[in-house]
Design brief:
This is SRPBCC family protein. By secondary structure, the protein is of the alpha+beta class. The chain is built from three helices and seven strands.
C-alpha cells in the first residue's frame, strides 16, 4: 500500500517570493535542510526534466535517541530530485529517489509544493506520495514542518 504524507503552513510572504525560494539553488541549500541538518546541492538544472542532487548531513552524526538513521550513511541522506512540473507561482512537483542500500528506502517519492494566496500571505502545502516505507511518518512530517518553518524565516 502506498502512503501519502501532507504538511502545510501559512507564510507571511507573497507567493512569488515563496515560489522563487522553491526553485533557487542558494535558497534551497539554506532553508530546505530540516533542523539539525545542513545541505549541499551537487548539480543544478532548474527546468522540467532537470533536477538536482541534495546531500543532507546530520550536524550530530553520533545518532542517538530521537534521531532517525541516515538513509545513505549514518550521517547523510542523499537524494536525486527531478523537476516534473514548474508552474510559477503556484506549484513545484518533484520526483525524489534516495541513495541507499536499504530496500525500505527504494522507489520514487513524488513531492508537490502548492502555493496559494491566503490571508495576506501564502499557504504552502507539501504533499508527498509513494513515501518509502523506511521513512517513519512522524519523522517525515516533522522534517517537512521544519523545512517549512525555515522557509518562512527565509522569505519573511
Amino acid at each position: 500500500m502506498t502512503r501519502t504524507d501532507r504538511v502545510g503552513r501559512w507564510i507571511d510572504a507573497p507567493r512569488e517570493s515563496v515560489y522563487h525560494a522553491l526553485v533557487d539553488r542558494g535558497a534551497l541549500e539554506t532553508w530546505l535542510p530540516p533542523e539539525g541538518m545542513s545541505g549541499r546541492i551537487e548539480h543544478w538544472d532548474p527546468r522540467p526534466g532537470g533536477g538536482f542532487r541534495m546531500v543532507l548531513t546530520y550536524l550530530d552524526a553520533s545518532g542517538g535517541p530521537g534521531r532517525p538513521p541516515g538513509k545513505t550513511t549514518a550521517a547523510t541522506d542523499v537524494a536525486d530530485i527531478a523537476f516534473v512540473d514548474l508552474a510559477p507561482p503556484e506549484r513545484v512537483v518533484q520526483r525524489v529517489e534516495f541513495t541507499s542500500d536499504d530496500p525500505s528506502y527504494a522507489g520514487t517519492m513524488t513531492m508537490t509544493w502548492e502555493c496559494v494566496e491566503a490571508a495576506g500571505g501564502t499557504e504552502v502545502t507539501v504533499t508527498a506520495t509513494e513515501v518509502p516505507p523506511g521513512i517513519e511518518r512522524a519523522d517525515h512530517e516533522a522534517g517537512i514542518a521544519s523545512s517549512l518553518a525555515q522557509l518562512a524565516r527565509f522569505v519573511g
